[in-house]
Specification:
This protein has about 450 residues and is an alpha/beta fold. It folds into two domains: about 220 residues, no CATH class; about 150 residues, TolB, N-terminal domain (Rossmann fold), CATH 3.40.50. About 50% of the residues lie in helices and about 15% in strands. Strands 3, 4, 5, 6, 7 and 8 form a six-stranded mixed beta sheet that branches. It has a two-stranded antiparallel ribbon with strand order 1-2.
Length: about 450
């Protein structure tokens, strides 16, 4: 959708154009809510049971008071009336984050954005989803290292695969492709039904925790250790030889098993301008090394997804690098460049939304007043000229399939619920209940296509 139409929609939501060409703004910013407002807001909610705003304002007040059970109940009541109101998932997700259930928070946020990708203020939910993934990954990495002796005695979860950042050998100007290529490889491999891919941020967080993020290529012994900490059955390492845009490039993948065994994978070479095609070739060539027969349907999905424009991918990679460093302004600019180069690149559009909204929602915890978040995010979008994301590209990870480590299986969330404290113990976790606290180490898995 073009920027003019998006901006017009925001304008119409706030102002009324009069015949004399004067503008009377009819949208007023909501007054902040405080815990002391709860009695008054409760009365308003009772008097207006079908008014979503009354329910959400009360939910926000409960949240500010730290009353998460009441906040969640009230948010669900509001969503029953107005299912596309972002205050619902923001309240529910904030409560889940307060409990350090980042997996559930991500599920809440991404489930909402998938159902309502164009609703007002959705960028705030996207930004909270990214923040929750990062917070969950950081917590999981710290806990894994602290409990390494216990985790290393456990078998890896079957068919689970992680992709390490790709080593860029050559011109350091292409260093951001380390993240971009790892993201592409992860997303393409997620198209294979027989394996489960770990989310990129979880791998990055563990590298940071082990202080390996800046050391370059990870040796097989360290990769094996990472696999045990992630409980991934195998890890993919990649090297991209890129010396300049005018010289041939080389992509090479290897596979590291849990015992440290290294299996040579596919290697391809070609022109730099064909980098996106070369990535597809090397991923498809990894099938035999993984012992997987890639079906024709899976092959078509891999070839059909992802960016189609190299300039867009280069900008997207720079955006990922800036996002990982917390430079949201630079990330938003790079993602915007990617969208301008390839308007169909919805992953870049969505990432740009999240990066632009991040300063407005960063630090929102369980005690935050959320009632003004949408206006703050829209102001930032309007100032930056952010367009609405298109649909059709599935590069961005979708995290509804959340697999807790050590089998801490969670009942699927209903559309507006957060009551997911009941846990099932799967056969793989029997006998592990003495490992106190390890059930909170979670990993977010890419959801495979239907």
């Amino acid at each position: 959708m073009i920027a003019g139409r998006s901006s017009s929609r925001r304008l119409l939501s706030r102002c009324l154009w009069l015949p004399a060409l004067a503008v009377a703004c009819v949208h007023t910013r909501p007054a902040p809510v405080r815990p002391s407002d709860i009695p008054r807001l409760e009365a308003q909610a009772r008097e207006n049971p079908r008014k979503a705003d009354a329910q959400f304002r009360l939910a926000a007040a409960y949240l500010a008071a730290g009353r998460c059970d009441d906040a969640a109940r009230q948010a669900r009541a509001g969503l029953q009336i107005e299912a596309d109101n972002v205050l619902g998932p923001l309240v529910l997700g904030a409560c889940q984050e307060r409990q350090q259930r980042y997996d559930l928070a991500v599920q809440t946020y991404t489930g909402f954005t998938e159902r309502h990708p164009r609703t007002r203020g959705v960028a705030a939910v996207r930004a909270k989803s990214v923040a929750a993934v990062r917070a969950g990954a950081t917590l999981a990495a710290r806990q894994a290292v602290q409990r390494e002796s216990a985790l290393t005695t456990l078998p890896p979860e079957p068919s689970t695969l992680a992709v390490l950042p790709v080593t860029i050998a050559g011109d350091t100007a292409f260093g951001s492709l380390s993240r971009g290529l790892a993201e592409l490889i992860t997303t393409d491999l997620a198209m294979l039904r027989s394996i489960r891919m770990l989310e990129r941020m979880h791998v990055g967080a563990l590298l940071d925790e082990l202080r390996l993020a800046q050391t370059g290529r990870v040796d097989p012994a360290t990769a094996s250790r990472m696999g045990r900490l992630l409980r991934a059955e195998r890890l993919v390492q990649g090297v991209a030889g890129i010396t300049s845009e005018r010289q041939p490039v080389r992509l090479h993948l290897t596979l590291v098993a849990g015992d440290g065994t290294v299996l040579a994978g596919p290697e391809v070479s070609g022109r730099f301008r064909d980098l996106l095609e070369l990535e597809k070739q090397v991923v498809l060539g990894l099938g035999p090394v993984l012992g997987i027969q890639i079906t024709e349907a899976e092959r078509r999905r891999i070839l059909g997804q992802g960016p189609k424009n190299l300039a867009a991918f280069l900008a997207y990679s720079r955006g990922l690098e800036a996002l990982d460093h917390g430079d949201y302004g630079a990330a938003a600019r790079h993602f915007g460049e990617a969208v301008r180069a390839d308007p169909s690149f919805s992953a870049a559009a969505q990432a740009g939304q999240a990066a632009q909204a991040a300063p407005a929602v960063e630090g929102l915890g369980a005690e935050a007043d959320l009632t003004g978040v949408v206006d703050a995010v829209e102001d930032r979008e309007a100032a930056a000229g952010i367009t609405e994301p298109t649909r059709g590209d599935v590069l961005a990870p979708v995290t509804n399939d959340v697999t807790p480590t050590l089998g801490d299986a969670i009942r699927p969330l209903v559309e507006t619920g957060i009551e997911s404290t009941t846990r099932q113990v799967l056969p793989e976790t029997r006998g592990l209940t003495n490992l106190q606290g390890t059930s909170t180490i979670i990993r977010i898995i890419f959801r495979r296509p239907l």
